[in-house]
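Ticket #592: bound-state structure for arginine.
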Amino acid sequence: MNKILDYMEDAIRKAFADCGYEEKYAKVVLSNRPDLCEYQCNGAMAAAKAYKKKPIDIASAVAEKLDTQSEKSVFSEVQAVMPGFINLKLSPAFLAEYMMGMAAGEKLGIEEAKKPETIIVDYGGANVAKPLHVGHLRAAIIGESIKRMGRFLGHHVIGDVHLGDWGLQMGLIIEELRDRQPDLVYFDESYTGEYPEEPPFTIGELEEIYPAASAKSKEDPAFLARAHEATLKLQKGYPPFRAIWRHIMHVSVADLKKNYANLNVEFDLWKGESDAEPYIEDMIQMLIDKGLAYESQGALVVDVAQETDSKEIPPCLIRKSDGASLYATSDLATIVEREQDFHPDRYIYVVDKRQGMHFEQVFRVAKKAGIVKEDTPMIFLGFGTMNGKDGKPFKTREGGVMRLENLIRDIDSAVLSRIMENRTMKQEEAEETAAKVGLAALKYGDLSNQAAKDYVFDVDRFISFEGNTGPYILYTIVRIKSILAKYREQGGSEEGTKAILPPVSGTEKGLMLQLARYNEAVENAFAETAPHKICQYVYELSNAFNSFYHETKILAEEDEGRRESYIGLITLTRRVLEACIELLGFEAPERM
Ligand code: ARG
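RESOLUTION: The complex was predicted; output attached.
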């Protein structure tokens, strides 16, 4: 379905051309004076310079040409005002027609991409054997939303969790395990039999082993050296350590899956850094053969600086002097694998913004070496830190790293006590509702901020039913659901698309104007990898609905045609709101 802006611009382009001016001046934007008009065209200003005329003369001539009278007119009012703006109001009949068009489409007026792309979204990034903590929360929430948007627009989107499963934490756990249970067969070098299927630890134990080992390594250099050696041995394929590694993966991934599922986050690929290992050797050889990688102080590096750089971009380290590979090595080799498996048209990495330099280097090597085609977009969506009210990175009350499941539990119980204040719900329903509302509070609290910005995690604000919050959006949806339920109780039926009539009040038109922006809002948000733009839109739409609701008798409207039209309009509003929160990764309860 054409965007509402396209309809307006088509008409204005024609008017500019009819007046003998170039069509490129016909750009339409949202009005910055909503008291005067709904949209505006500022093109006469620029045209005035090119044609050496007064802007107001051009604006007036163009306005004159625009149809506001016929049945098919897009505009109901067009006004040229000083110094040369063209103020626009949409025709109520045209708008109503547009609403009907939206309601008739499964995707509410959104068109799928004409050239669907294969897109890798690399998000999650949890580190195996360490509990999922708030540092990984943003990646999961933002990445999931981007994945959903891309898919909704018809792209082939592949979400990869890209686990940190190959680093020093593995060596630390292996050596800690040796200290605790030296008799395990994995540590008996003369052992040649099969390794046990049962892991030598539970998830609970594993989560205790890692922090203990990590603390020990800070105090005991000999232990740290052992852990490094064990890590290297693991990476070289030493069978007993591979066996332990498989246990760690097995136990840990099951737990991670459960945690991500609680967040409504789902990955297509559960790959990790370890999967890149088989590609590393050939890739490094290729970098050497192409003359890109060279030795510098024993290490292997690739220069990536460019003349146009405004800040220094140091060479990318590919291999350390002891032969160990690095974070960049595994990310590059992962790209080799992804190219081989999927030929992506686009890459999107959702990672802490402090890793920006790393990705800049990796992307440059990938392009320079021809691993990725020069024109394939590689997007680094770096997110800021989630801070506590003290402005410092979010911690538990005791000052430790907050585990995700505890954070979710805290939010849910805060929502639950708010719901139970009115005590109209049974405990069980209240708990289910609290889980839904809590997730919305958490996700919306995050997504409504521009990703790159740090934000303050403020439970009280996030769970408020008023203001720019997830619960406010849900509340709006629940409000519509309850009107529709009442309508059904009174014998009404929602089946079939209702005739939506031209609006008769300002708030009704305001609601339609917001609804009409839907396709543009979603396409824009995805093109700019900016979920906060969906939040902005859904907030404005909720406000528009609530204004309409407060001043309109919907079910009590006596004129049947008008009442049915209202039902059609609020049904459409509900569908658009629900589609938006689906893109944000949460859902609405029946009641709140
Ligand atoms: N595991 C990493 C971390 O915790 C994040 C991984 C991000 N993705 C990537 N392809 N490097 O910092």
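RESOLUTION NOTES: The two ends are 34 Å apart (CA to CA).
TICKET STATUS: resolved
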